[in-house]
Every structure is written in C-alpha cells, then in structure tokens.
Amino acid sequence: MASNVTPNPELNRKVGLMALAFALFMLGMGFAAVPLYRMFCAATGFGGTTQRASAAEAGGVAVAAQRISVRFDGNVESGMPWRFGPEQVTEDMRIGERKIAYFTAENLSNRPITGIASFNVEPESAGLYFKKIQCFCFNQQTLKPHEKVRMPVLYYVDPAILKDSETKGTTQITLSYTFHDTANRGAPAAAPVKAASKTLDHAQTAR
Q1: Residues 52 and 38 in one domain
Q2: Are residues 91 and 178 in the same domain?
Q3: Alpha carbon 27 to its chain's center
Q4: Which residue of 36, 85, 151, 188 has the smallest Cβ count within 10 Å?
C-alpha cells in the first residue's frame, strides 16, 4: 500500500538546524570543559588546588596561635632537562603568618627552555586554605642554557582551616610542584623568573 505521508521540507530544515545547533553546542562545551574545570578547582580547592590572595587580603589576616608544618616537594616531568627542588624541605609556622619558600631551578641543557609548573597540596582538603600571594607558578619561566635561579613563593595558611571539620586537625601540608616543558604543549615563552624573585623579596621586606 502506498504511503500518504507528504514530505515537509520546512520541518526537515528545522530538524536539521536543531541537530546542527546541538552538535555545535556540544563541541563548544568540549573546548570549555578544561578552563571551566580549572575555574571550579580554583574556587573550591578541589583536587588540592591552592588559592590566590592579594597582598591586601593577606595583610588583613589575623595570625593564630596554632602552628602547622608545611612540607615542600619539587619535580620535573620525564625528559625535561631541568634540576628543580626546594631549598628548605619543611617550614614550621603559625597559621595565618606570611612566609616565603624558595625553590631552585637549573637548566642542564645547552638550549633555552621555558617551563610551567603544575601544583597541588596534600591533604587535598587543605587546598582551599593554602593561599599564595605571589608565586613563580603563576607564569611560564624561561631559563637560559645552564642558568640556575631561585624561585620564591609568598604564601600563608588561612586560619579558616581551623574551623573546617575536615581540616582543623591537620598538622602538616605538603606543597608539591612539577615543572613541564612548554615545548611539549605548544605554549608561548614568557619572561625569566628573576623579576618575580625581586618582587617577592620586596614583599618580605615590607611585611
């Protein structure tokens, strides 16, 4: 029996446009997933992501009587010809107190290399309360052949850590960095790290 259904070009066109719009939307969400995830981690401390704080915000923090130990760890990705690590393995400090930690990086190769550091803290629940005022990890860092530099981090632990049921019993936080070669990521080069070091030295003097 022959079908009496008459094709509707207008309906077909609308369905096709809706399908195309949905496909474009899903493609856009795929590109946005990484930055949105990073924004979520930065806002919540998820996965041990540390927080950023302004100098003004840090200046308004009341230093608590309780103390905490901060342990430092440094690594480079496999195949990257850098030597990188902390100058001081641990720091015993009062919660809310501003401190500077120094890391040393050395380019062991005969060519300039630009690196970028990924970072996190353990336990992960403490990430929301570990505040960095300035850090070499905020920007890419370029080292000349065989150049060796000091890389500072100005930070504090937010006293709010003492009010969170998941973190109030924390006695040590581990801050870990891993440097990655931007040549493997197609990222552009950035300014050397020495300017950042001077800025942090000034911040420590002005405390």
Answers
A1: no
A2: yes
A3: 26
A4: 188
